[in-house]
Amino acid sequence: MARSKDKTPRTPKEPGRLKQMWQVFQMTRRYDSNIVLFMILAFLIPVAISLLLAFVFSPGNVVTIVLWVIAGALGGLLAMLIILGRRAEKAAYSQIEGQPGAVGAVLRSSLKRGWVGSEMPVAVNGKTQDAVYRAVGRGGVVLISEGPRTRTARMLDEERRMVTRLGGSIAVTVISVGPDADAVPLHKLARRLTRIKPTLTKAEVLAVNNRLSSMTKKLPIPKGVDPMKARPQRGN
């Protein structure tokens, strides 16, 4: 009787870069019907500009015109990728916007360099699931409310007083993410943090974050949702 050979299960290969981009494009197109138009314009505009410059500065020189066109095409491809990335991020976060933990997902995956944040909130209302998150960076301490301002105002005030007691003169910025008309959209939250005027050094950012983290109570609540694993909503 022949011995059966043990076959070690092969780990599934990760999709290639082009396949990943195609999957991102397909996901984005389901939630953004204008993505194709924006990507076409992003490609054609640099090509048109390069052609115009070629005929202005190098009329009649075929080789130079071809080089200008190639440069415009490369610029167009880069612009297409930038547009796809931004629209894909917006589409991904639109799937989880309004859900408990959505702000935590942004703080976990989209914070820029120099900022420290946690996907776990520093305060939460167990009944309404409204929460307050905290991020520390060059711009100081930022408290981010998740939910209507009328329900998160008290939690924000308590957290602001705690930060003021521990941090002294550290700048505290309050940002609201929720249904209010002037609230910051979820997909713009990370960029909103980068526009805050720097007031701390890198060493001070770590010191302030460590001090605040040591005084924060751990809350028995779930982590933020993952925008890339969120289930698409079914149409009516």
Give a description of the structure.
With 236 residues, the protein is of the alpha+beta class. 50% of the residues lie in helices and 10% in strands. The chain has 7 helices and 5 strands, in the order H-H-H-H-E-E-E-E-H-E-H-H. Strands 1, 2, 3, 4 and 5 form a 5-stranded mixed sheet that branches. Strand 2 (123-124) and strand 3 form a beta hairpin.
Mean pLDDT: 82
Q: Return Rg in Å.
A: 24 Å
SSE pattern: HHHHEEEEHEHH
**Total number of strands:** 5
Helix content: 40-55%
Gross morphology:
elongated
End-to-end Cα distance, whole Å, is: 60 Å
Approximate strand percentage:
5-15%
Q: Supply the number of structural domains.
A: 2
Q: What are the low-pLDDT stretches, counting only 5+ consecutive residues below 50?
A: 230-236
* Count of separate DSSP helical elements: 7
Largest sheet, in brief, is:
5 strands, mixed
The SS-based structural class is alpha+beta
Please give a quick description of this structure.
By secondary structure, the chain is α+β, with helices and mostly antiparallel strands. It has helices at 17-31, 35-57, 62-94, 102-109, 149-167, 189-194, 202-215; strands at residues 116-117, 123-124, 131-137, 140-146, 172-177.
Which features characterize this protein?
DUF4191; transmembrane helix; transmembrane; 2 domains; 5 strands; DUF4191 domain-containing protein
